[in-house]
Design a protein that fits this description.
The structure holds two protein chains of two kinds. Chain A is mostly helical. Chain A has a domain of about 210 residues. Helices cover about 70% and strands about 0% of the residues of chain A. Chain A has 13 helices and two strands, in the order αααααββαααααααα. Chain A has a two-stranded antiparallel ribbon. In chain A, helix 2 crosses helix 11, helix 4 packs across helix 5 and helix 10 packs parallel to helix 13. The longest helix of chain A has 27 residues. By secondary structure, chain B is of the alpha/beta class. Chain B has two domains: about 200 residues, 3-Layer(aba) Sandwich (Rossmann fold); about 160 residues, Rossmann fold (3-Layer(aba) Sandwich), CATH 3.40.50. Chain B has a six-stranded mixed β-sheet, sandwiched between helices. A four-stranded parallel β-sheet of chain B has the order 8-7-9-10, sandwiched between helices. Chain B has a three-stranded antiparallel β-sheet with strand order 11-14-15. In chain B, helix 2 packs parallel to helix 14 and helix 14 packs across helix 15. Chain B is globular. The termini of chain B are far apart. Classes of the chains: A mainly alpha, B alpha/beta. The interface between A and B is medium-sized, with 32 and 38 residues.
Chain lengths: ~325, ~400
């Protein structure tokens, strides 16, 4: 697996451990995302950001720890329910509501993670899926989630009680800040010694054990971090769309986000963002095509698997011979 | 010169304004429906076809201004649905959204339409909350709801002697609400509930639930579930021979469900519908036209889409404006009279009250032609079919 250790690091960002071209990509991304709401519909852009975060959280496990979680909808969806409930019923401001959502995602991540990391490969995936389905049926039954009707009319409220988020553009800037904060934190995690150990575990778990690393602890922390990040995405989505429904906790959501990660490129840092953007844009622009949406989605996936085995960004990275 | 020009432009503007005050000079209708999932046959493409027919029949123009149609697939996801609705309202100038099967999507879109002050007419979805707890001054619920589909069936069956009821309830809000509404009616009309069992969503094996039925000696098995659960439980009840002893009451069944189950299995089933194509000459005439374009007979939600759009466009023509509050006010004042409804009226809570029909599915021998599925047993008057305003929790209802 490629590492970045030999790549020159830009002086002011040495602490972030970010090579110059990664910095350029980050700045480019920031520039594009700052202009985007003036060109595209802001709510659509926000949705892309939320799903990009969600896909990044899956990629932290899948790409960097080699753990395929098939139950990330549980953290995403439960967080959106709790955030929606906190904002609507308890009347909390949006940032606190999202934090409540993250709290429940971390809690679930701790419980499920502690149990799931005892198994590997397909068994790990099945265990996470089973737990996620438990959460789904809980959400279907629990009185506060509104069953299949979901929670509607969630107030967007005012950020810190000061800045009203009713305007779509204001909301976009808020989500953009959250997005970049999470992205930088994730970057830092992946490129820290902790992240290096994760990659070592992914590549050869037995060797990592023989080197004296407590593999399960590393996996557990990665799992909880990933759940937390999924929680941020879910909570934010609930505030933005002013609703929380069963779609967010259903297993197809877990599948969709894995799909986004794979299309974008799972060993890459920027891949999931591209994958999420692609899938969300497809869902959006194909909505008027009707029953062909799923067929086209399937064809795109088949094409990606056949043409870019490592995902779109992974393909570009291998052409450039640099990790992206 | 400049003043003259401005004057002419001003005069021109005021003339067009007088003829019809329409936002961005068009009336734009959005059909938001499920085109791929479980509701795609009862609404879906057929709803779009019905909307196209309505606009063509109306004449595609109101006072020289165009009537346009857009449609989209909400994929049964509330976030996809609201995102499309937001884009339609904010960027594309859509004045009215129609159909919207799936309760989670429609409840979210109802809130959005209220916020953006546009009209929402619901045909495909059945959740009675739309005109109850979640009612909105901009929302009209046209075709059916869980209350009318379930309660009329229950009343009629009890009156015909089906006294002891056994419930097969889907274990989520939709099933529970339906069961509670029906059980109340059954007990109020002199029947009794002898047993009830809850099954999880998307059950494929109903044997353990159905095996308890014979020991209860129930006259009626009520299916308080929907979609594939209804189809599976019905098939298995038939296989166990339960349908010979007991009547089966379907609480949310559409013509296309019967079509896909087949008469062999569905025969004898009691249900309530807001529309049946083969009821009289008017319904037949319209339905045959629909059939030519769509290749299937219309369900009540598809017929409702046509009827609602007609009433909406006529109301715009009548008030000369597409502003939501004026149009809705006119729609509520004017009775609905077409092939779909006779003297239908829209109540303060947004419920369009019209006659419903108690039907029984024909046996294969009784069915003379394709799509000849229902025997209409009784017309249920609107006042009886829908939840009375006195029981309403809607804030728009003055008590």
């Amino acid at each position: 697996m490629p590492t970045h250790s030999s790549v020159p690091v830009a002086a002011p960002f040495r602490k972030l451990g970010m090579p110059r071209y990664h910095l350029m990509i980050m700045l480019g991304l920031a520039a594009v995302l700052s202009v985007a709401p003036f060109l595209l519909y802001p709510i659509l852009m926000i949705k892309i950001l939320c799903f990009a975060l969600f896909a990044c959280s899956v990629n932290l496990l899948l790409g960097y720890a080699g753990l395929l979680s098939f139950g990330h909808a549980a953290y995403f969806g439960m967080s959106s329910y709790v955030a929606a409930h906190a904002a609507k019923v308890w009347g909390l401001s949006p940032e606190l509501a999202i934090l409540c959502g993250v709290g429940i995602a971390v809690l679930l991540g701790c419980i499920f993670g502690a149990l799931a990391i005892r198994r590997q490969g397909i068994y790990f995936a099945m265990v996470t899926l089973a737990f996620a389905q438990m959460v789904y049926f809980f959400a279907l039954q629990a009185p506060f989630t509104g069953g299949e009707d979901g929670i509607q009319k969630v107030p967007r409220g005012a950020l810190f009680g000061l800045i009203p988020l009713a305007d779509d553009k204001t909301l976009y800037w808020f989500v953009l800040v959250v997005f970049f904060a999470c992205l930088l934190a994730l970057y830092r995690i992946i490129h820290s010694p902790f992240g290096q150990v994760l990659k070592a575990i992914r590549d050869n778990e037995a060797r990592a054990v023989s080197l004296g690393y407590r593999v399960n602890q590393y996996k557990f922390i990665a799992f909880v971090l990933s759940a937390a990040l999924a929680g941020v995405a879910g909570g934010t989505k609930a505030i933005v769309f002013q609703l929380a429904t069963l779609t967010d906790v259903y297993w197809t959501m877990s599948g969709e986000v894995v799909l986004m990660t794979l299309i974008g490129g799972m060993y890459t840092f920027f891949g999931p963002i591209v994958g999420a953007a692609l899938v969300v844009l497809m869902q959006n622009y194909l909505a008027s095509v009707g029953d062909w949406v799923t067929v086209i989605q399937g064809l795109v996936f088949v094409a990606c698997v056949l043409l870019f085995r490592e995902g779109i960004v992974g393909f570009i990275a291998s052409k450039l011979k640099r990790p992206l | 010169m400049k003043k003259l020009c401005l004057g002419i432009i001003g005069a021109a503007c005021s003339i067009t304004a007088a003829s019809a005050q329409l936002s961005d000079n068009t009336v734009k209708i959005g059909v938001l429906t499920d085109q791929t999932g479980v509701f795609s046959s009862l609404a879906g493409k057929g709803s779009v076809v019905a909307a196209e027919m309505a606009i063509e029949d109306f004449g595609t123009k109101i006072g020289g201004k165009k009537v346009e149609l857009v449609s989209a697939d909400h994929q049964n996801k509330a976030d996809v649905g609201t995102q499309i609705a937001r884009r339609w309202f904010d960027a594309e100038g859509v004045d009215m959204i129609i159909d919207v099967p799936n309760s989670s999507v429609v409840l979210a879109v109802q809130e959005l339409a209220r916020e953006k002050n546009r009209v929402l007419i619901v045909s495909g979805a059945g959740t009675a909350d739309l005109t109850n707890k979640a009612c909105s001054p901009n929302g009209i619920h046209w075709t059916w709801d869980t209350y009318s589909a379930a309660v009329s069936t229950a009343k009629a069956i009890v009156q015909e002697g089906g006294k002891s009821w056994y419930f097969l309830t889907a274990d989520y809000a939709f099933g529970h609400t339906m069961k509670a509404d029906v059980a109340r009616v059954v007990e109020a009309t002199g029947g009794k509930v002898v047993g009830s069992v809850q099954h999880p969503l998307n059950t494929s094996d109903f044997s353990s639930f159905l095996m308890r039925v014979p020991s209860t000696n129930a006259d009626v098995i009520a299916l308080a579930n929907g979609g594939s659960d209804t189809i599976n439980s019905l098939k298995q009840a038939q296989e166990f021979g339960l349908t010979q002893k007991a009547k089966i009451a379907g609480l949310a069944i559409f013509l296309t469900d019967v079509h896909s189950i087949g008469l062999q299995t569905a025969q004898g089933l009691y249900l309530t519908t807001g529309f049946y194509w083969d009821r009289n000459d008017e319904t037949r005439e319209w339905s045959q036209r629909f059939f030519k374009r769509h290749g299937a007979m219309p369900t009540m939600s598809q017929a409702g889409v046509y009827s609602a759009i007609m009433h909406y466009l006529k109301s715009i023509e009548g008030v000369g404006s597409d502003a939501a509050e004026k149009v809705v006010a006119r729609m509520k004042e004017t009775p609905v009279n077409d092939f779909f409804a006779k003297n239908g009226k829209i109540r303060a809570d947004g419920r369009m009250v019209h006659d419903m029909y108690l039907a029984q599915v024909k046996t294969p021998a009784e069915s003379k032609a394709a799509w000849d599925y229902y025997k209409i047993l009784r017309t249920v008057p609107g006042e009886e079919a829908f939840r009375p305003l006195s029981e309403s929790e809607c804030s728009l209802v003055r008590k």
